[in-house]
Amino acid sequence: MSAGPDQQVDVSRFVSFTRAQWARLREATPLPLSEAQLRGLVGVNERVSLDEVADIYLPLSRLLNLYVQATQALHHASVTFLGSGAPRVPFVIGLAGSVAVGKSTTSRILQALLARWPSHPRVDLVTTDGFLWPRHVLEARGLMERKGFPESYDVCRLLRFMADLKSGAPEVSAPVYSHLTYDIVEGELQVVRQPDIVIVEGLNVLQTGTGAMFVSDFFDFSIYVDGNDADVEQWYIERFLTLRATVFRNPSSYFHRYADLTADEAADTARAIWRSINLVNLRENVLPTRERAHLILEKGRDHAVRTVRLRKS
User: Is residue 5 included in any domain, yes or no?
Assistant: First the structure.
């Protein structure tokens, strides 16, 4: 039976919560972070208060804790059925969203909160920046203006990392990326040794394609950090201006050439970069993956999460 023309059918796969509604789902979960600890987790030009942590991130950490416990119980049931030991396999959380939307801050806050639950104290954070092709490869392939687009990543290496991680390998290594030099750090690796939880953060971690396997196939839960395009553009420009007065002044910085720009010149440069590269990537590759997430954090102009959307199944 189909709906008539005057009937409206709610086909959304998500349940939406206002901040106040979501905050009530925290129940009795204690706030384990101090103001000083929170400051160490927040990125450049971002504003996150302890109240927002209590209202948004504590309920989310409670939800994730329930997921982790259920997954651990299922793993134990499989071990019991097989009658033999099985490797320790981490619970993997994927976290996606635009450049400058606050993915890294969200990831660090979740890492800090989840590590304080007694059943999973070891939480690692891996960013997919480390799986970008080295700068010399991008330059040789003419991809420097496409950095962050799907083709700028060593996807095969990233998929091997994810497969080894979920197979319970004793040690799995990820390349390390430097935002200062805008390149992979040669010879440096992040070693992951069977933690309880791994958060994998990156622009395109929810991306699908023509291959038989995707990074998101290895996720137990996924989060998308969302914001209005115009707001994210403004956040990008504000961050660029702050970096121009700080990090860009380091002669080792790839962006040192922008350090002496006037404020207006820097804002114009940031806007041009945003609109020619990051906005294109957002609209073509990142935003279309939003509905694949289990949970969406929707931010307002002030960078604070206003709405939480949770997938029904």
Answer: no
